[in-house]
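RECORD TYPE: inverse folding
INPUT: C-alpha cells
STRUCTURE:
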C-alpha cells in the first residue's frame, strides 16, 4: 500500500494502491468503477494496473449482476490503471445505534429474519410471501412471522470414539445443533412425532394465516433409525408446497453419507427462502463413526422399536427479534459489512496462561472467504544474541488438502521481533484503510490504522500491542489459537424449556444444546495395526477433511463441507443483549443462564501444539520413530509418564528437525458479512431495482434506502479529489435519478476534473420503469422521461440501449448496461488518440466485444435520441456495434455539449493544476507571472500538435492578475482556445489560489 500526500495549504492528494507485489505498476490516469464485486475491500478506492490484479482483489463474478467485473475487462483491453470502489451493505450509513433495543445494530443494514421481502411487483402484493397461506394484508398473525430455528438431535459417541467426551460433553444423550434454519414469514416449522400419534402433514386447508392452535407437529420429533437411516420429517405449516423440491413436509436425514442428508436436500439458497419456505443457513456434519443420534441416556423409552423421539427444532425462548442480557436475539442480523478474521494466535503457556500474539484479517470485506492459514516450521532461537525464534505463515486455498496443498502465498522465517526485518508486521503488513462509519456523518471518511505497508495480497496482520512494543518474552512463539466463535445456545435462558418426565430422564435437555466440537486433527497416522504409519504431510489444528472412521480419522480425503458453516457470520454486535455468537472472551465466567461462554473452554476449542501427547526417549528428546502414536489431547490434561515415556510436546522439542517438520497447524477465517438483505437478488447485489423499490416504499421497511446510501457514500469518495483520482467514472447498471443526479453533481460541482458515463432509466409503453428483461422497452417513453429530467451538465454523458457482451469469465454472453461497453470505447479512444478526440464512430467508438445491442435501433430512433443528448449505440451491417454519438447532457447549445471538448478542458485543468503545485511558496516577484506563463504555453502547444486545438492564446500577466490578487496570493489567467474542427471559441478563465485551480 502506498500513500502520496501533499500537505501544502489547500492541496491534499492521496492515492490508495493495494496492488502490492504486482510486476506492473499503474500507468496513466485511471477510470473509476463503482460497483458490487465478488470480494475485495469495500468503500476503499483500490488502484490496480491489470485485469489479473483486479481479479486477485475482487474475484471472478458468480452472477451476471457483477457488472463491475465486465467493465474492468473492457477497460483493461487498452489501459493499465483502474480504481475500483466496491460497495457493500451499510444500512443508513450512520454509526451504530447507542440507545433503545438492539443497541449496537446498524439501522437498515443486513436483515431481520421474517421481515417482508421485495417481490416482483412494486404494488399490491409487495412484501407478501406468495408461497404461504397468509392473509391478503401480509403475514401478520401472532406467531407466523419468520424466525430462526435450531435443528438438532440427541447424540451419543460411537464405540471407539471420544468425539464428545474429549470436548467435555456427555458421551450419551448430548443435545447437538445440526443446523440453523431461517423460516419465511407465513411458515412455522415443526417436526413430526410418533410419540403422540400426531399428523405428519401440515394444515394448509385454510386460506387464513396460521395461529398457534392450527400448527401441526412438535418441537421434538421422531427419528427413524431403521438401518441407520437417521431420518426425520420436517413440517412446513402454512407453506403451500410449490413443487417436489419444496414440499409442505420433507423427509431428511442426519447422516452425512445419506442422499437425503440435510446438507444435501434442504434449501441452502437464501434467494429461495419464500419459495422453499425456509433456508438452511448453516449445518454441522457428524459422521456415524464418531457419534450417532440416539435416545440413550436421555429417553426413557422408544417408539416403534427403531423410532425414537430424539430430534428437536426450536426457536429461541424470547419473542421474535427480541432478546435480553442472557437470551440472544437470533433473528437480528442488522449489521454492516464485516471482514473475516482468524482467532488470536497464541504462545506456549507462560505462567499458566497463553499470550495473544497476532491474528490475521482478510483484506477483502464481506462473506467471500476462500482461504485458510497454516503456521509451520516453528523454530526456537539457538542464538543468545537474538532470543526470538521464527516461523512460517502459509496462505492456502480453502479447498486444498494437506496431501495436495495449494499455496497462494507464503511468508518464511517470520519473527515477533519488532526490530527485525523479518518482523511479522513488516513481512505481511498491518495497515488497514477503511471507511469509518462509526463517527458523526459529517466527519465520515477514509481512516487508516497500522504501521507497515501491506505486502500480502490476501491478509493483513493485527498485532498485540505487547508484541509491537517488544514487551513480551522473546522466546514466545505461535503454538496455537484461541477458540473460534461459537453459538450461544446453552444454559437455562436461550432455548425454551422442555420437560416431559414421561419419556425424558433429563429435565429440560435443551439447556445443554451445543454445536458439535470443531474437528481437530487427532493424530498424524494413516492405516491401522501393522500397516499404521505416520503421514508427515498432515497438519494439526482444524481438520478440513471429513472424519469417517473413529479408528482411522485421517482415512478420508473428502473435504468437510460443514467447515463453511463455522466460517459464517453470526451476529455479535449487541451491546446490552447476549450475542448470537461469541469469541475473543477468554476468562469469562460460566453462568447458569448461558453455560460455558469462554470460547477457549467451550468444547475445549482452544488449540495448542502443547496439547499433543508425544513419545520421548530416555534422553528426554522426542521419539520421532513413534510419530504414528502421537495424538492430540483436547482438554490438554497430559501428565508425564516416565514408564510409558509419554508427555506433552514442548517448545524445546522443536529444535529437533523432524519434530519441527510435523509440528504445524491450520486454522480458518470466520465472521465475514456483506451487510445486505440476502433473501432477495436485488437487495443482495444492490441493484438499480433495489433503489427503485426503496424510493417507492413508505412503511414497508425500505424507506431508509440502504442501497441508495451505499452509492451515495461511494460518491462522497469520488467527490474528494484527495481520495480518488481519475479521468472517468461509471456506476454500471445504476439508472435511478436520485443516484445518477448525485453523480452528475459530483462531476460538475464537486470535482470539475472528472467525467461521468451513465446509464439512463428505461420505460415501457405506459411510462413505467423497466426492471426486468421480460418487460419491453419503449424508446419514445424512455426519451420523454429523460427529457423531463432537465439535466444540464457538460461533465456527463448518457448512452442507450443495453448491449449483449461476451462474458469471458463464464464463457457466455450476457446483457449489460451500456456504460460497461462504453467505458472500453473511451479507453480505446484514449489509446488511439487523446481525450480531446471523440469516443465515437468507426475508429474510436468500436465495441468489438459486443455481440449485439439489446434493441435494434432504426435511423428514426437515432434521429430521436441524439437531439435529446442520448448517445446511441447501434450496429452496422458487416461493421459491428459502434458508439454513434458524443454529446454531453448540457442543455444549451454550445461547443461544450461535445464530449471531446469537455475532456479537452478537463485535461487542461489537470495539467495547469500540476504546474500550480510546482510554484507553491515561490516568491511573488515581477517575473513569477512570466515564468508561470512559460510553463503553461508548452502544454497548449503540445495539445495543438496532437490535434486538440487549432489556435490558442495564453494570458497570464498584470492585466489578468490584479494587485488585490497578489495580496491574496492568487494568480489569475485566461486561455482562449479554438478546438480543432470547431468554429466556436472557448474563453476558459482560470484562477490559481494556494494551489487550487478553478477553471471554467
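DESIGNED SEQUENCE:
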Amino acid at each position: 500500500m502506498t500513500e502520496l500526500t501533499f500537505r501544502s495549504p489547500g492541496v491534499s492528494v492521496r492515492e490508495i494502491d493495494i496492488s502490492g507485489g504486482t510486476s506492473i505498476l499503474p500507468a496513466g490516469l485511471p477510470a473509476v468503477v463503482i460497483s458490487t464485486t465478488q470480494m475485495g475491500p469495500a468503500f476503499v478506492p483500490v488502484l490496480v494496473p491489470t485485469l489479473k490484479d483486479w481479479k486477485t482483489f475482487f474475484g471472478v463474478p458468480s452472477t451476471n449482476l457483477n457488472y463491475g467485473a465486465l467493465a474492468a475487462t473492457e477497460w483493461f483491453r487498452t489501459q493499465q490503471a483502474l480504481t475500483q470502489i466496491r460497495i457493500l451493505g451499510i444500512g443508513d450509513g450512520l454509526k451504530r445505534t447507542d440507545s433503545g433495543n438492539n443497541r449496537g445494530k446498524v439501522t437498515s443494514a443486513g436483515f431481520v429474519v421474517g421481515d417482508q421481502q421485495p417481490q416482483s411487483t412494486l404494488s399490491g402484493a409487495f412484501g407478501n410471501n406468495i408461497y404461504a397461506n397468509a392473509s391478503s394484508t401480509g403475514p401478520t398473525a401472532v406467531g407466523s412471522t419468520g424466525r430462526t430455528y435450531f435443528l438438532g438431535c440427541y447424540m451419543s459417541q460411537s464405540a471407539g470414539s471420544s468425539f464428545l467426551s474429549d470436548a467435555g460433553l456427555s458421551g450419551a444423550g448430548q443435545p447437538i445443533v445440526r443446523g440453523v434454519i431461517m423460516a419465511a414469514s407465513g411458515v412455522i416449522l415443526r417436526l413430526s412425532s410418533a410419540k403422540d400419534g400426531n399428523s405428519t402433514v401440515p394444515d394448509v386447508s385454510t386460506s387464513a394465516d396460521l395461529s398457534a392452535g392450527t400448527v401441526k407437529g412438535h418441537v421434538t420429533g421422531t427419528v427413524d433409525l431403521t438401518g441407520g437411516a437417521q431420518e426425520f420429517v420436517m413440517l412446513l405449516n402454512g407453506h403451500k408446497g410449490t413443487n417436489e423440491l419444496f414440499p409442505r413436509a420433507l423427509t431428511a436425514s442426519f447422516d452425512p453419507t445419506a442422499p437425503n442428508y440435510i446438507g444435501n436436500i434442504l434449501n441452502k439458497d437464501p434467494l429461495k427462502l419464500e419459495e422453499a419456505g425456509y433456508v438452511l443457513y448453516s449445518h454441522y456434519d457428524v459422521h456415524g463413526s464418531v457419534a450417532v443420534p440416539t435416545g440413550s441416556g436421555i429417553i426413557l423409552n422408544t417408539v416403534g422399536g427403531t423410532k425414537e423421539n430424539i430430534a428437536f427444532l426450536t426457536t429461541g425462548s424470547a419473542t421474535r427479534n427480541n432478546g435480553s442480557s442472557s437470551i440472544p436475539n437470533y433473528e437480528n442480523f442488522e449489521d454492516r459489512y464485516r471482514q473475516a478474521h482468524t482467532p488470536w494466535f497464541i504462545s506456549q503457556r507462560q505462567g499458566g496462561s497463553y499470550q495473544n500474539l497476532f491474528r490475521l484479517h482478510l483484506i477483502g470485506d464481506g462473506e467471500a472467504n476462500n482461504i485458510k492459514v497454516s503456521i509451520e516450521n516453528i523454530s526456537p532461537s539457538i542464538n543468545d544474541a537474538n532470543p526470538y525464534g521464527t516461523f512460517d505463515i502459509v496462505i492456502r486455498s480453502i479447498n486444498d488438502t494437506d496431501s495436495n496443498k495449494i499455496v497462494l502465498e507464503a511468508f518464511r522465517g517470520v519473527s515477533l521481533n519488532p526490530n527485525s526485518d523479518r518482523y511479522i508486521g513488516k513481512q505481511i503488513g498491518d495497515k488497514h484503510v477503511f471507511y469509518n462509519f462509526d463517527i458523526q456523518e459529517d466527519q465520515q471518511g477514509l481512516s487508516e490504522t497500522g504501521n507497515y505497508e501491506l505486502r500480502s495480497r490476501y491478509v493483513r496482520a493485527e498485532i498485540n500491542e505487547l508484541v509491537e512494543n517488544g514487551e513480551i518474552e522473546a522466546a514466545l512463539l505461535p503454538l496455537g489459537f484461541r477458540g473460534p466463535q461459537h453459538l450461544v445456545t446453552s444454559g437455562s435462558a436461550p432455548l425454551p424449556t422442555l420437560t416431559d418426565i414421561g419419556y425424558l430422564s433429563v429435565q429440560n435437555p435443551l439447556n445443554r444444546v451445543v454445536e458439535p466440537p470443531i474437528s481437530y486433527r487427532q493424530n498424524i497416522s494413516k492405516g491401522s495395526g501393522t500397516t499404521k504409519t505416520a503421514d508427515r504431510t498432515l497438519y494439526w489444528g482444524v481438520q478440513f477433511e471429513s472424519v469417517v472412521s473413529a479408528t482411522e480419522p485421517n482415512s478420508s480425503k473428502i473435504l468437510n463441507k460443514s467447515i463453511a458453516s463455522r466460517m459464517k457470520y453470526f451476529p455479535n454486535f449487541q451491546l446490552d443483549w447476549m450475542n448470537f455468537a461469541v469469541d475473543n472472551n477468554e476468562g469469562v465466567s460460566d453462568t447458569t443462564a448461558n453455560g460455558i461462554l469462554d470460547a477457549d473452554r467451550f468444547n475445549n476449542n482452544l488449540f495448542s501444539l502443547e496439547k499433543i501427547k508425544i513419545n520421548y526417549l530416555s534422553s528426554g528428546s522426542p521419539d520421532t520413530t513413534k510419530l504414528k502414536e502421537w495424538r492430540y489431547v483436547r482438554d490438554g490434561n497430559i501428565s508425564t509418564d516416565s514408564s510409558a515415556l509419554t508427555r506433552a510436546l514442548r517448545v524445546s522439542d522443536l529444535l529437533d528437525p523432524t519434530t519441527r517438520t510435523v509440528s504445524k497447524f491450520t486454522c480458518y477465517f470466520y465472521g465475514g458479512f456483506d451487510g445486505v438483505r440476502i433473501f432477495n437478488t436485488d437487495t443482495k447485489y444492490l441493484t438499480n431495482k433495489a433503489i427503485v423499490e426503496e424510493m417507492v416504499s413508505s412503511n414497508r421497511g425500505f424507506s431508509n434506502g440502504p442501497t441508495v446510501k451505499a452509492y451515495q457514500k461511494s460518491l462522497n469518495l469520488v467527490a474528494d479529489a484527495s481520495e480518488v483520482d481519475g479521468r472517468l467514472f461509471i456506476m454500471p447498471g445504476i439508472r435511478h435519478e436520485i443516484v445518477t443526479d448525485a453523480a452528475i453533481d459530483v462531476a460538475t460541482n464537486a470535482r470539475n476534473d472528472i467525467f461521468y458515463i451513465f446509464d439512463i432509466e428505461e420505460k415501457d409503453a405506459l411510462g413505467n420503469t423497466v426492471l426486468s428483461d421480460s418487460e419491453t422497452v419503449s424508446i419514445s417513453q424512455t426519451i420523454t422521461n429523460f427529457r423531463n429530467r432537465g439535466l444540464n451538465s457538460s461533465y456527463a454523458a448518457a448512452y442507450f440501449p443495453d448491449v449483449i457482451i461476451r462474458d469471458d469469465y463464464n464463457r457466455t454472453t450476457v446483457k449489460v448496461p451500456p456504460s460497461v461497453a462504453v467505458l472500453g470505447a473511451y479507453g480505446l479512444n484514449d489509446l488511439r488518440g487523446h481525450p480531446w478526440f471523440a469516443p465515437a464512430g468507426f475508429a474510436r467508438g468500436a465495441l468489438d466485444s459486443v455481440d449485439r445491442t439489446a434493441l435494434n435501433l432504426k435511423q428514426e430512433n437515432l434521429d430521436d435520441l441524439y437531439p435529446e443528448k442520448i448517445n446511441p449505440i447501434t450496429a452496422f451491417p458487416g461493421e459491428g456495434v459502434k458508439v454513434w454519438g458524443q454529446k454531453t447532457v448540457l442543455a444549451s447549445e454550445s461547443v461544450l455539449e461535445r464530449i471531446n471538448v469537455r475532456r479537452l478542458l478537463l485535461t487542461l485543468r489537470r495539467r495547469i493544476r500540476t504546474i500550480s503545485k510546482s510554484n507553491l511558496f515561490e516568491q511573488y516577484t515581477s517575473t513569477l507571472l512570466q515564468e508561470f506563463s512559460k510553463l503553461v504555453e508548452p502544454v497548449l502547444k503540445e495539445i495543438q500538435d496532437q490535434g486538440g486545438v487549432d489556435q490558442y492564446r495564453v494570458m497570464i500577466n498584470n492585466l489578468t492578475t490584479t494587485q488585490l490578487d497578489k495580496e491574496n496570493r492568487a494568480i489569475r489567467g485566461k486561455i482562449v482556445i479554438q478546438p480543432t474542427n470547431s468554429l466556436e471559441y472557448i474563453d476558459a478563465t482560470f484562477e490559481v489560489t494556494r494551489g487550487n485551480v478553478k477553471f471554467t
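NOTES: Residues 127 and 699 are 11 Å apart (CA to CA).
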